[in-house]
Structure formats: C-alpha cells, structure tokens
Specification:
- The N and C termini lie far apart (90 Å).
- The chain folds into two domains: 121-347, ABC transporter transmembrane region fold (Up-down Bundle), CATH 1.20.1560; 368-607, P-loop containing nucleotide triphosphate hydrolases (Rossmann fold, 3-Layer(aba) Sandwich).
- The longest helix has 53 residues, at 247-299.
- It is α/β, with parallel strands linked by helices.
- The protein is elongated, with a radius of gyration of 36 Å.
- It is built from 18 helices and ten strands.
- Helix 2 (44-75) packs antiparallel against helix 3 and helix 8 runs antiparallel to helix 9.
- The strands form two sheets. The protein has a six-stranded mixed sheet, sandwiched between helices.
- The structure holds adenosine-5'-diphosphate (ADP) and magnesium ion (MG).
- Adenosine-5'-diphosphate (ADP) is lined by residues 140, 377-378, 383, 401, 403-409.
C-alpha cells in the first residue's frame, strides 16, 4: 500500500467531520433566505439600483484593457500613428473608465448599506424578542457574555453575507466568464484554457483548504465566547469577588480562557498562512504562464504589443477579485458558521408556549385553584407531589413552610414560567395553560423574593410596573409603598440612578420599589413572595399596612417567613414535602397543635 501524503489524510479526515456542516448549510440557506427576502423586497428599488451600478462599474473595468491596447498600439512605431487629439481622447477615456469603475462601486456600496443595516436591525430585533420568549430554564442556564457575542457575530455575519454574496461572488463569476469569452474570441482557446484551468484549480484549492480550516475558525469563536462569558460573569459578581478576595483567582481563570483563545488564534493564523500561500502560488504560476505565452507570441509576430498589454491587464484584473474571492469565501464560511449558531438559538423552542387556540384570560373574583399538581425541576428531585390548594377570590391566603419547601415554585407555576408535570392550575375555572401567557401575567402583580432593578432612575424603575403611568400615579405608588421618606432624603429624589441590578439601594429599599411597581400594575391578583423579609420591623409594619389596603380588594397570596406578619390572613396554608399538610386560620391551626403550631412556637421562642 502506498502511504498517503500527510496533507491528503488531513483533507480526508476533515471531510468526514465536515459533511455534517455541509448538510447544515443546505438547511441554513433557505432559512436565511426566508428571513432576508422581506428586507430585500422592502428595499427593491435600492437593490435594483445597486445592481445597476454594479454592472456600470464592471463595464468600466472591462473597457480598461481595450483602451490600454489601443493606446499602446497607437504609440507603437510600426503601427499607423494616431493624431494628438485622438491620443488625448483615448487617455481621457482611460481615466474616465478608471474613475467610473471606482465611483460606481462606491455608489453601489453607499446605496446598499441601508439594506444591510435594515437586515441587521430586523434580525437583531427578532433574536432579542425570541430570547425573551424563551423559558426561565433557558435563562437560568444561559451565559450572558457568550450569548451577546454569539448574537453580535451572527448579525455581522448576515451583513457580510449580504454584501459579499450579491456584490462579490456573483459579479466575479460573471467577470471570469466575460474575460474568458473575450480572450477566446480575440486570441483563440489557449489563453482561455489557461484562465479557466487556473480558476478551477484556484477554486478547488480554496474550497478544500477553507473546509479544512473551518474547525480552527470555530475553535476561535468558541474560545472568544468563553472568555467573554468569564469576563462578564466575573464583573457581574464584582461584590462577591471582593468579599472573598478572589481577584487573583478570577484573573487566573480569565487568563486561562484568554490563553485558550490565543492558542486557537495561533492555529487559525497558521492555517490561514497555508491557505494564502497556496493561493498566491496558483495565481503566480498561471500569470507566469500567460505572460510567457503572450511574450513569445509577440516575438513571433503573432500578437502586437497592445495585445500583450491587454492580456496582462485582464489577468491582473481577473486575479485581483479572485484573490479576494478566496477571502470572501473564507469569510462567508465563517459567517455561515456564526449565523448557524444564531439560528440555532432562533430555532430553540420555548418549553412553555401558548396553545394555538389560546384565549385571553378574564379574571372575575380571582379564584385560584391548584389541582393534583406534580412538579420537578429535575426528574430526580420532586418539588411538588400532588398539591391541592384553593384560594378563594378576594381572600388573603398565606403560604408558609420551610425554606426550599416549594413556595416560590408555586408562584413560578402560577406565572407559568414552568408547566406542571401533571395536574392543573386554574384561575376562575380557566386552566392557565389554555390562555395566553400575556393575558395571564397581566392579571398578576408580584413583589418577588429577590428584586433586582434596571440600571435606570428610581422613577423609571417604579414606572416599570405600568409604563404608561403618569408622574402622579408614580407618586401615589411611592406613597403606598412607604417610600416617600426615603425619596425625600435623596438629593436627586426620584431621578436617583439605582446602579446595575439596583445594587445602590439596600435590600429593603429595593423591596419597597418592587411593592410600588406592584401597586402601579394594579392587577386583580397580588403575590408577595417574602416581600418583607429584608425589612426592619418598623418598615415591615408600614409595608404590611400598605399591603392590607391593597389586598382588601384583591386576591392576595402571601408567602411569609415571619409568621407574625400573616396571623390575620383569611387562610394559612402549610407546605411540607410538596403537599399541603394543614390549612386554616391562625387560631384554628394553633389549636390543632400540628406543624404550624410548632413553627409558631419555634419563632416565638427565638424572638424572646
Ligand atoms: N430553577 C431551578 N432548578 C432546579 N431546582 C430549583 C430551581 N429553583 C428552585 N429549585 C429547588 O426547588 C426547591 C424549592 O425551591 P423554592 O420554591 O424556591 O423554595 P421556597 O419554598 O424557599 O421558596 C428547592 O430545593 C430549590 O433548590
Ligand atoms: Mg422562596
């Protein structure tokens, strides 16, 4: 058996891994077209005009060798000399053709830029909306830094693809055809043969080598996303890093991922060197061949000097875009890989989706019912085990239980961030999986357990509960949430910026902002998830009285850690091991002397 040269085995090996990607790009292109065609259709005129300018630019380019030939032949001693005026005309025509080529190319890019940006705008927005539609689970698992990079690379990939596919690949192929035809017509097949052969070899080599390089490119992108994820995650957790003096540790982890990136780049650069070198060799060989053929023909008197110049000029002009074509092909492959990553994200289906015939939820009294609800985040660890719970409309119901008992989970199911594994949850008799998520969430206001804010002013953060609310309504919500003293003490009042994730406020202040938001939203169902847990007893009393005013005409679900805050609830539900173990009013539950009573006694003891 003849041993295979090492480069051949390389190509054969990559071929196997890359067939998948070829399949992927077969699916990718129609998808891409589906997303891009509306943008192209919307800018029909621009696209048409840009194509027209493209033709004009190429026309100017094809004229140049002919003008050069006429000039050289006109100046050559043996040929009949041309007059001064004629010469001037030819020189001017040459200059005109050169300028036209550049001008029309610029016009084309300027016109088309708008279309590219519209496409980036559209797809960027689609991705953003899509990511927001994805389920909570996805968001808990996502890596923000890497995601941002993936989206960024995907949209610029689309821009690149649009610009270069339309204005580079197709026109260059057209140009090759034209040049081959012109040479054949004027000088016979031999020159055309060399041109076509070198184009074919060049294309074959570029294609193979680029395919071989794809995984280096991918490795660079992965390393890039990873290091970005590291950096963003580390910066988001700035405080934690400081608390634990872990700057060094963070830096060394970032250093590691940057090192991986650097190594990947190094391999990528070497493979690029191989590709560029090979391409240059092919171009140089065929140019040498052509020039040699032409030079000997001139010596034999078969061609004029002008012909020699024309042929050389065509070769120069042809290989310039061809060299560029190699680059474009590489970049297009890279762009496609980036777009593929982004489209994978777009193809990801949210685990929780509206039913096709989803109706709009209408809330009357606001009666909430959990029937035999089973739920687990991961199959190995069940959180709710056949939970039955009815919350009558207009009542205030407290849910208590140990930390980790599944209280917050209950609320996430009510908001339909997750679907139960079995059982139903309904509001006023309508199962929530039959209504649109929009209409469901519209009717529930929540003060969550961990409240994070946007990096914006206090006013805008409160207004977030109802973006259409005016300043008076915001002020009323501030009063209801007992925030007015706090706001009065701030030099900038409601215009104070709260910092990223609201970290410039204390936990209690953040919670009251969340209460103000909920007040502003004014939904028929109110949920408090340990909303007073980080307040001191004085603020807690204030917030509780505000809450009681609100809860008076709403259905309210209150999850409370401190039992003293919920003694007057219409009903208290005790959650344990994923089921309701006790339900009733405070005095009844105490009298029963069960779980609630022992919880109560434990808390009473710890307070005294
Ligand atoms: N997204 C999640 N993925 C996996 N497990 C989770 C998730 N969220 C909560 N859990 C687990 O589910 C259990 C119930 O959590 P939770 O409802 O937040 O408890 P609590 O009653 O304190 O509000 C806990 O053991 C918690 O670790
Ligand atoms: Mg909780």
């Amino acid at each position: 058996m003849v041993p295979r040269p090492f480069w051949l085995s390389y190509i054969m090996r990559t071929k196997q891994t890359e067939t998948l990607s070829a399949q992927a790009s077969r699916v990718l292109l129609p998808k891409l077209w589906q997303r891009l065609s509306p943008v192209l259709a919307e800018h029909k005129m621009r696209v048409a005009l840009a194509l027209l300018f493209l033709l004009a630019a190429k026309g100017g380019l094809l004229l140049i060798p002919f003008l050069l030939k006429a000039l050289v032949d006109g100046l050559d001693g043996d040929a009949p000399a041309v007059g001064g005026t004629m010469l001037l005309m030819m020189v001017l025509a040459y200059g005109g053709a050169r300028f036209a080529n550049t001008l029309f190319a610029e016009l084309r890019d300027t016109l088309f830029g708008r279309v590219t940006e519209a496409a980036m705008h559209r797809i960027g927005l689609q991705v953003f909306e899509h990511v927001h539609r994805l389920d909570l689970d996805y968001h808990l698992n996502r890596r923000t830094g890497g995601l941002a990079r993936d989206i960024e690379r995907g949209t610029s990939g689309i821009s690149f693809l649009l610009r270069f596919f339309i204005f580079n690949i197709a026109p260059t192929l057209f140009e090759i055809g034209m040049v081959a035809g012109i040479l054949w017509f004027n000088y016979g097949f031999s020159y055309t043969g060399v041109v076509l052969a070198s184009v074919v070899v060049y294309a074959w080599f570029s294609f193979r080598a680029t395919r071989w390089r794809t995984h280096f490119v991918r490795a660079v992108n992965e390393a890039d996303s990873n290091s970005n994820t590291r950096a963003v995650d580390s910066l988001l957790n700035y405080e934690t890093v400081k608390y634990f003096n872990n700057e060094q540790y963070e830096a060394s982890r970032y250093d590691q991922s940057l090192q991986q990136w650097q190594d990947a780049r190094q391999k990528n650069r070497l493979s690029l060197f191989a590709l560029n070198g090979g391409q240059a060799l092919i171009i140089a060989l065929s140019q040498t061949f052509m020039v040699g053929m032409a030079a000997f023909s001139v010596q034999r008197g078969q061609l004029t000097l002008g012909d020699f110049v024309l042929i050389n000029q065509f070769m120069l002009q042809l290989f310039m875009p061809l060299g560029f074509l190699g680059f474009v092909y590489r970049e297009i492959k890279a762009s496609l890989a980036n777009i593929e990553t982004m489209f994978k994200l777009l193809d990801r289906q949210p685990k929780v989706a509206d039913a096709p015939d989803a109706s709009t939820l209408r809330v009357g009294p606001g009666r909430i019912q959990f029937q035999q609800v089973h739920f687990a985040y991961q199959t190995e660890r069940t959180v709710l085990r056949g939970l039955d719970l009815t919350i009558e409309g207009g009542q205030t119901v407290a849910i208590v239980g140990a930390s980790g008992a599944g209280k917050s989970t209950l609320i996430k199911l009510l908001f339909r961030f997750y679907d139960p594994d079995s059982g139903t949850i309904s509001i006023d008799g309508t199962p929530i999986h039959r209504v649109s998520q929009d209409s469901l969430r519209q009717h529930i206001a929540i003060v969550p357990q961990d409240c994070v804010l946007f990096n914006d002013s206090l006013r805008e953060n409160i207004r977030y509960g109802k973006p259409s609310a005016d300043d008076d309504a915001v002020a009323a919500a501030v009063r209801a949430a007992h925030l007015e003293d706090f706001v009065a003490r701030l030099p900038d009042g409601l215009d104070t910026l709260v910092g990223e994730r609201g970290l410039k406020l204390s936990g209690g202040e953040r919670q009251r902002v969340a209460i103000a938001r909920a007040v502003l939203k004014d939904a028929p169902i109110l949920v408090f998830d340990e909303a007073t847990s980080s307040l001191d007893s004085q603020s807690e009393q204030a917030v509780l009285s505000a809450f009681r005013e609100l809860a008076g005409h709403h259905t309210a679900v209150v999850i409370a850690h401190r039992l003293s805050t919920i003694v007057d609830a219409d009903s208290i539900v005790v959650l344990q091991n994923g089921v309701v173990v006790e339900q009733g009013q405070h005095t009844d539950l105490l009298a029963r002397d069960g779980t609630y009573a022992s919880l109560w006694q434990a808390q009473q003891r710890s307070q005294t």
